[in-house]
Amino acid sequence: MKSSIFLLLAIFFLTISQSCTSIDRKKSVEADVVIYGGTSAAITAAVQVKKSGKSVVVVSPDTHLGGLSSGGLGFTDTGDKSVIGGLARDFYHRVYLHYQDSAAWQWEKKEQYGNKGQGTPAIDGDARTMWIFEPHVAEKIFEDYVVEYDIDVRRDEWLNRESGVKKENGRITSITTLSGNTYKGKMFIDATYEGDLLAASGVSYHVGREANSVYGEQWNGVQVGVLHHSHWFGADISPYKISGDSTSGLLYGVSAEYPGEYGEGDHRVQAYCFRMCLSNHPENRVVFPRPDNYSPENYELLARVFASGWRQTFSKFDIIPNRKTDTNNHGPFSTDFIGMSYDYPEASYERRKEIIREHEDYQKGLMYFLSNDPKVPEEVREKMSQWGLAKDEFTDNGNWPRQLYIREARRMVGDRVTTEHEIFNRAEVADPVGMGSYTLDSHNVQRYVKLDGFVQNEGDIGVHLPGPYKIPYQSIIPKKEECENLLVSVCMSSSHIAFGSIRMEPVFMILGQSAASAAILAIDHDWAVQDVDYDQLKSVLKEDGQVLESPVLVIEK
Fold first, then answer.
1. What is the mean pLDDT of residues 521-536?
2. What angle do CA 539, 543, 545 make, to 5 degrees?
3. Is the N or the C terminus of the chain less surrounded, counting Cβ atoms within 10 Å?
4. d(CA 163, CA 178)
């Protein structure tokens, strides 16, 4: 009897011991490089670390990997594709390989999409890359990377932004998440759209638009009177609930605030939206439902735009394979929820979730309005009825994209801030870690009432560049006195308007890989990231296929 009791006690204490050991392992994870974020930049950085023979852990707030690349932005903003190299190019090569398989074309034939062997804007046949794709295809590629390189990914792990970053002698030693897990490393990479790790690490940053005077720029700050693209009110539209009656109150989404003077800095950030994946295949289409809190009054301004004769509703239903779209903002009133994201960068997790839900409600209501409201022209309603959410995308989220398009949040302020002078190649960059080439681009920032009593949008910028430009290494690292072992591959050190060109998914992948390469060198030589020998870094980057210079580089006079 006693022996049986002792046996049971032994089993009990052994179980407790094993359980505690398991808990200890869970609570403390150590790797050479700790990457915070689940974006495309995070995964390319992790792949580069593993290829270099070092250990890595990806601490991802997201359950699904890839950020916007797998979250609906399938109509890639590329600019000059020749300057996209390394793992970024490998990603788009894998997209190409996927669509070479006839089984990938479930809802249409490959030939129907437009690729007849001659190449299309979506496909570079000779380069074996494809730039336009479905969300689930991108996610699978990121998950393939995780499996192939045996990357340790910890999902649904949210940084404790109040007390989760521990530093000693100017270096991060560990980060702790809200779950209580701690991640220790020699080097850290912030690969989030929000810049939460850099902010919690005490690194300087900026939110909003700098005044033009800060860096001697032209396209930063408030842009009242500047009308680019076609995302502004071309007709005189009253912003008041009773048209023409200023005493009746403003329509939903119109600000009563003074917009500011041209070139002034402000706290505002450009509009966010979801990049919706829609389908017009009858068997793969989910009809837009009436949202629970739907209010048609929220879209009265759009009704007045239609009444003025505007008919460009479908101009940004960009077609991706299998009769689907990457649907983006277009026109004076569209999917961009203008003025409703100012507090997002600094907001608590709880408030951010509210903002994300507000954007979702707004866009779902917009789709229902366009499909059903009698104030919408009949031809628009009839065409909208042919579209719906893609049934085979985002299947665990009601076919709705999981990632809000955070076009801009925090931006680090390092020793070198990349500005429009670098973007236009007016300033020398001796330490490039990648290249960009996309148009200088910002979406609208605010919707206000002009002095004449009509509504207008402000902040939309679209300025073509003379050619590709170099991105400095100094702009992906903080000031040495602030942190010696952190690199930032998304919320890098740049002005608002320079970030308008940089903020493209291929560039984030490029910078993720380059940040990882720098981190490896810093570990091997026991350097601060600010002391990394650029000649050595350049050699590594070029060996790994990164493009650091372009034969079409044009210096703007």
1. 98
2. 120
3. N
4. 10
Q: Report the amino acid identity of residue 301.
A: L
Residue with token string 């062997």? 117
Unique residue bearing structure tokens 């979702």: 360
Q: What is the pLDDT of residues 177-232, one digit of tens each?
A: 999 999 999 999 999 999 999 999 999 999 999 999 999 999 999 999 998 888 99
Q: Over the range 261-293, which residues count as b (16 or more CB within 10 Å of their CB) and which as e? A: eebbbbebbbbbbbbbbbbbbeebbbebeebee
Are 208 and 276 contacting, i.e. CB atoms less than 8 angstroms apart?
no
Take residue 123 and report the two structure tokens written for it. Answer: 């496909």
Q: How far are the Cα atoms of 45, 59, 242, 543 from residue 63, in angstroms, in the given order?
A: 18, 10, 46, 33
Distance (Å, rounded) from C-alpha 472 to C-alpha 475?
A: 5
Angle at alpha carbon of residue 397, lines to 395 and 400, rounded to 5°: 90
Exposed / middle / buried, residue 214 (Cβ in 10 Å: 0-12, 13-18, 19+) = middle
Please name the residue ranges forming H helices in 182-273. 196-200, 212-215
Q: How many residues does the chain have?
A: 557
Q: Which residues of 155-181 are buried (b: 16+ CB within 10 A; e: fewer)?
A: eebbbbbeebbebeeebbebbbbeeeb
Q: How far is CA 295 from CA 234, 364, 375, in A?
A: 25, 11, 14
Summarize pLDDT for 370-402 with one digit per residue, the tens.
Answer: 999 999 999 999 999 999 999 999 999 999 999
CA 500 to chain centroid, in Å, comes to 12
- SS3 state at 531: helix
201 forms bridges with which residues in the sheet? none
Contact in structure between 434 and 546 (CB atoms under 8 Å): yes
Cα 234 to Cα 171: distance, rounded to the nearest angstrom: 53
Task: Please report where in the chains the tokens 């295949």 appear, as a residue.
Answer: 281
pTM: 0.93
Choose among 227, 229, 217, 228: nearest CA to 264: 217
Tell me the C-alpha distance between 453 and 378, whole Å: 30
Largest Cα–Cα separation, the chain: 95
Token output for 174: 């560990």
Q: How far apart are CA 148 and CA 142, in angstroms?
A: 10
C-beta of residue 217 within 8 angstroms of C-beta of residue 495: yes
Contacts of 480 (CB under 8 A, 6+ apart): 170, 415, 528, 530
String of b and e for 335-351 (b: at least 16 CB within 10 Å)? Answer: bbbbbebbebbbbeeee
Residue type (1 letter), 360:
E
